[in-house]
Amino acid sequence: MTSFDSKCFWVYSISLHNQGTDSKMYHSITFQYLKESGIADEWRILSVNSYEGTEFISSTEHRKYPFYGVHFHPEKNAFEWKIESIPHSASAILVEQFYGNFFVNEGTFTGRHVGSV
Fold first, then answer.
1. Which end of the chain is flanked by fewer CB atoms within 10 Å, N or C?
2. Domain at 8, CATH number
3. pLDDT < 50: residue spans in the chain
4. pTM for this one?
5. Is 60 within the bounds of a domain?
6. b/e per residue, 89-105, with b = 16+ CB within 10 A?
7. Hey, which residues does 24 pair with through a beta bridge?
8. SS3 string of 35-96?
9. 7: domain range?
């Protein structure tokens, strides 16, 4: 299965191939760690990055449940201006908007509302 089969990451070609995100390795998870934990089959790995020769998972989603994980901060594209390595191109802003809209929309499926929790 490719990342384009993913519910969340159809924007993958913009966000990762065009360097639309700023991803660092610290506090990262490797595929080997998932295997050793016995949960690798439960997750669809959507993208990986590498840092100093170590490959780490940069985006994933659960195969059964609506759980998603990204190892970057897409919101920084629009709001973080002190760090020069964070992209601010039109495609980087599109990535930020996509992820914000996607995750807010996913939250509407819970049936919970502000004040009902």
1. C
2. 3.40.50.880
3. 1-3, 12-18, 20
4. 0.65
5. yes
6. eebbebbbebbeebeee
7. none
8. HHHCCHHHEEEEEEEEECCEEEEEEEEECCCCCEEECCCCCHHHHCCCCCCCCCCHHHHHHH
9. 3-109
